Amino acid sequence: MDSCSSSAGRQTNSGSHSQSREYKLVMLGEGGVGKSAIIMQFISHRFPEDHDPTIEDAYKTQIRIDDEPANLDILDTAGQAEFTAMRDQYMRAGEGFIISYSITDRCSFHEAREFKQLIHRVRRTVDTPVVLVGNKSDLVHLRQVSTDEGRGLAREFSCPFFETSAALRHYIDDVFIALVRQIRQRDKEAVLALERKNRKHASVWKRLKSPFRRKKDTVN
Ligand SMILES: Nc1nc2c(ncn2[C@@H]2O[C@H](COP(=O)(O)OP(=O)(O)OP(=O)(O)O)[C@@H](O)[C@H]2O)c(=O)[nH]1
Ligand SMILES: [Mg+2]
């Protein structure tokens, strides 16, 4: 299992809330894999014993990751097919996606690949930040998907992978931290690409300017 050291912690200073970057995260996965339970454990350290199928819920929380505050806006989606009308909209609006399956349910593991393809189809890019999560790792006696299979799929997706237990709060924070780190990495790459583009633009002008300068020199 991949793991992730962090310096994350809840932020108490609500004054800086408006200044820090907001991250729009979307929780995906088949019905009953534990999407709501993972979010609830992350936000409020509680584990819901019952399965209350989600239609759509949004949660906000603030956390420090690598000594930088982050406002997380987390969308908990419906796993059940009859509640999925908004899918394309949140696929477009989200910045990072948690694709979850249950290690006790092979079908949910196959669905994880479908979710990845759907993200690709809707966003038309391969570099969307994603974390793959195999939940219910406490139910070892019911395991249908091995850790190696999970790792293999994450390798295919080129994304971090965690086996979590919402029941025991294992690797819950790590999932969100890894996703925010990926978004930050992408932000940095975008800034670098822009700087490169601006430098190129500037050098074109420099080249264009030099003949003018020469002409001016000859006149004088
Ligand atoms: N043992 C165990 N049970 C879990 C875990 N996570 C969730 N569950 C249970 O699985 C059931 C479904 O959990 P939910 O969080 O409601 O699942 P969901 O993915 O949000 O389901 P939908 O909203 O219908 O898509 C509940 O009874 C949870 O208590 C876990 O890590 N371990
Ligand atoms: Mg739910």
From TrEMBL:
Give the Polar residues compositional bias ranges.
1-18
* Annotated GO biological process: signal transduction
Catalytic activity line of the entry: GTP + H2O = GDP + phosphate + H(+)
Top-level EC class:
hydrolase
What compartments host this protein? Cell membrane
Q: Which UniProt keywords apply?
A: Cell membrane, GTP-binding, Hydrolase, Membrane, Nucleotide-binding
E.C. no: 3.6.5.2
Q: What is this protein called?
A: small monomeric GTPase
Protein source organism: Erpetoichthys calabaricus
Q: Which gene encodes it?
A: RIT1
